[in-house]
């Protein structure tokens, strides 16, 4: 047992999250640490109030039996008190394990069972119900603490505690518990586990990634310095708490720099809350930026003719000079004046509507963003950049420095990170952020962490010789060749397709085949709006997806992408020859997407093998029956006959060859 060592906020060794919290509470006690919108009103916790609440909960957890080294599951939406719970768990010498709140009961049970969680802290009744549903398979789970008591009054309290009650227990505890808490905090150092986060499980069961205090704090320190993040910044925490990006932004960087973390009232109000908060630091995966752009385009279709013309004129101007001005490069006086006018009439109101007016640093990652979407936001004057990272790297592998932002690269190595490309074209890195281990999986740990501390990413990429920027091509296992030997990079094509607001998701096939084909998911909001404006009647997603005019619209989009691909000699073989529109949206509950919305390509290939065969055997239609999972967990089957259409291929590649 570690002996008691007295500590204070003035300690120079800031090697744990609780020590960073103590420093912030001492240096800026009244500065805002958290904000949350509840019942339409923004509530604020200062750093001093946060430290007091964390300390009380930590003592309460010790009182109800939390031991050093225990794993504690955290399940719920982004809320300040759940973030404080993670800091309290760390203070008590245990390890927080955030779990995706939209996980079905079986997925949640797997994580809690795998990490042998003795405690779980749940946001509300829905999460408690999922835990209790699986309690027979969770012999290690002893206590469940819930934040929102609504609906839980008549539940069996033998294993349930209200969050407020545990805090009260902590506040009323005696000096013996306080001494024990100080002892536990003093025992912790940079090498101890800070958090355990589970991978998305794209190719199999999720793995528990153990990240140390050193991993999180050194990465946070380096990346805050890279972008000049300070206590004057603010961020909106709306992405899943179980995702490593949210942990590094809302805990690691927030505690290092002292900036404020704001939590929206709900998923449905996120965009409204984003406008009210106006964060200076903002992260969103490509899907969020795609949705924002889709909503803009939908509103513009409903605008007056004058507004549509003004929007198109100034956006064309922005594409020409907006990014140049953002990068500090020169433009003519006339262009600057017109861009300033566009800022008054279009760019400013649009950024304000999106909630991005105050963004000083914006990032996107998770998967490649379409170049057209990326350029759109940069053209508005939003400092949107790309980063490349992994859970195993504590997020950051590369970042784009100001003045060196490109739509087709993910930047240079983050501070402290080294990168190399092996002979097979796979990206490897090593850094202070490299994870400790996969929990209870020594074999995978050895396979991933190579000699010398190098980690294989599984992604294929190239380093530009002149700039040192990394260009990611695709997942290494997905990059292949078509039957005639040309490169096949499905994700690149899928991202080009998803630039169109009408296309929500795309899955492209073609490795080892004579041609490429695609599954398409339409965006119900965008296509539904189009249908209303064009008097197209429909009763469901399935009806709309099968409508001939929708097929014609999607076919035009694919042919435009083919034209673009045909002008790229290295990727001209990725042009799509045939496609179908799926009768249902790909869904994480059906196993087709991960909880971070990444396509599980292998599962889709297995599940829809008959559709893929029909795309290649010349069929004009195909009948399919698919099992689906409803929101309440019930299973059902939907059936449909899907049309398959041929697509015109572009001729740019042929023109290039003739010109050569």
Task: Please give a quick description of this structure.
The protein has 660 residues and is α/β, with parallel strands linked by helices. The strands form 7 sheets. The chain has a 5-stranded parallel sheet with strand order 4-3-5-6-7, with helices on both faces. The protein has a 5-stranded mixed sheet with strand order 12-13-14-15-16, sandwiched between helices. Strand 10 (234-236), helix 9 (244-257) and strand 11 (260-263) form a beta-alpha-beta unit.
Residues in helices, as a percent range: 25-40%
Biggest sheet, spatial arrangement of strands: 4-3-5-6-7
Which stretches are low in confidence, meaning pLDDT under 50 for 5 or more residues running?
3-12, 654-660
Number of strands: 28
Tally of alpha and pi helices: 22
% residues in beta strands: 15-25%
Molecular structure report:
With 660 residues, this protein is α/β, with parallel strands linked by helices. 39% of the residues lie in helices and 22% in strands. It is built from 22 helices and 28 strands. The strands form seven sheets. Strands 4-3-5-6-7 form a five-stranded parallel beta sheet, sandwiched between helices. α3 links the parallel β3 and β4. α11 (286-301) packs parallel to α17 (524-533). The longest helix has 22 residues, at 305-326. The protein is globular and about 80 Å long.
């Amino acid at each position: 047992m570690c002996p008691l060592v007295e500590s204070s906020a003035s300690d120079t060794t800031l090697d744990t999250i609780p020590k960073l919290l103590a420093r912030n509470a001492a240096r800026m006690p009244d500065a805002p640490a958290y904000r949350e919108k509840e019942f339409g009103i923004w509530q604020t916790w200062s750093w001093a109030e946060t430290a007091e609440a964390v300390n009380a909960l930590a003592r309460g957890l010790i009182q109800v039996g939390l031991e050093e080294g225990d794993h504690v599951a955290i399940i719920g939406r982004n809320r300040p008190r759940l973030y404080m719970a993670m800091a309290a768990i760390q203070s008590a010498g245990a390890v927080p394990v955030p779990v995706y709140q939209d996980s079905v009961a079986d997925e949640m049970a797997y994580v809690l069972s795998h990490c042998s969680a003795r405690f779980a802290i749940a946001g509300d009744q829905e999460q408690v119900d999922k835990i209790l549903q699986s309690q027979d398979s969770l012999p290690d789970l002893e206590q469940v603490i819930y934040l929102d008591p609504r609906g839980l009054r008549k539940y069996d309290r033998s294993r349930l505690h209200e969050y407020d009650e545990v805090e009260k227990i902590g506040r009323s505890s005696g000096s013996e518990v306080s001494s024990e808490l100080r002892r536990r905090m003093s025992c912790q150092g940079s090498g101890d586990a800070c958090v355990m986060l589970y991978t998305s499980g794209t190719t199999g069961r999720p793995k528990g990634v153990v990240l140390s205090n050193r991993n999180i704090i050194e990465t946070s320190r380096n990346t805050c310095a890279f972008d000049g993040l300070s206590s004057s910044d603010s961020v909106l925490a709306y992405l899943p708490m179980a995702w490593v990006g949210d942990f590094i932004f809302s805990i690691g960087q927030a505690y290092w720099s002292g900036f404020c973390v704001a939590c929206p009232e709900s998923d449905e109000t996120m965009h409204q809350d984003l406008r009210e908060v106006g964060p200076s630091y903002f992260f969103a995966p490509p899907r969020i930026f795609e949705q924002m752009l889709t909503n803009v385009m939908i509103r513009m279709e409903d605008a007056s003719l004058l507004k549509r013309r003004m929007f198109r004129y100034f956006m064309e101007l922005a594409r020409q000079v907006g990014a140049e001005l953002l990068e500090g490069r020169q433009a003519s006086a006339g262009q600057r004046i017109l861009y300033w006018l566009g800022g008054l009439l279009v760019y400013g109101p649009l950024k304000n509507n999106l909630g991005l007016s105050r963004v000083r640093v914006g990032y996107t990652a998770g998967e490649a963003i379409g170049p057209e979407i990326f350029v759109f936001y940069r053209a508005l004057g939003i400092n949107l950049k790309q980063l490349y990272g992994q859970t195993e790297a504590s997020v950051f592998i590369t970042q784009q420095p100001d003045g060196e932002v490109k739509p087709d690269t993910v930047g240079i190595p983050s501070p402290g990170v080294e990168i190399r490309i092996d002979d097979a074209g796979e990206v490897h890195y090593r850094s202070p952020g490299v994870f400790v281990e996969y929990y209870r999986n020594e074999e995978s740990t050895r396979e991933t962490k190579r000699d010398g501390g190098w980690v294989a990413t599984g992604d294929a990429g190239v380093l530009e010789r002149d700039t040192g920027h990394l260009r990611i091509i695709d997942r290494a296992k997905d990059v292949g060749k078509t039957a005639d030997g040309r490169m096949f990079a499905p994700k690149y094509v899928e991202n080009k397709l998803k630039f169109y607001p009408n296309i929500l998701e795309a899955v492209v096939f073609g490795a080892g085949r004579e041609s490429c084909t695609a599954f398409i998911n339409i965006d119900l909001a965008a296509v539904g709006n189009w249908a209303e404006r064009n008097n197209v009647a429909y009763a469901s997603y399935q009806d709309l997806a099968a409508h001939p005019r929708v097929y014609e619209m999607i076919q035009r989009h694919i042919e435009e992408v083919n034209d673009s691909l045909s002008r790229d000699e290295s990727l001209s073989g990725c042009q799509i020859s045939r496609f179908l529109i799926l009768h249902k949206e790909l869904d994480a509950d059906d196993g087709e997407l991960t909880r971070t919305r990444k396509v599980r390509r292998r599962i889709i290939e297995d599940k829809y093998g008959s559709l893929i065969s029909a795309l290649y055997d010349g069929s004009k239609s195909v009948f399919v029956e698919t099992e689906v999972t409803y929101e309440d967990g019930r299973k059902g089957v939907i059936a449909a006959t899907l049309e398959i259409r041929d697509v015109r291929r572009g001729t740019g590649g042929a023109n290039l060859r003739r010109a050569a």
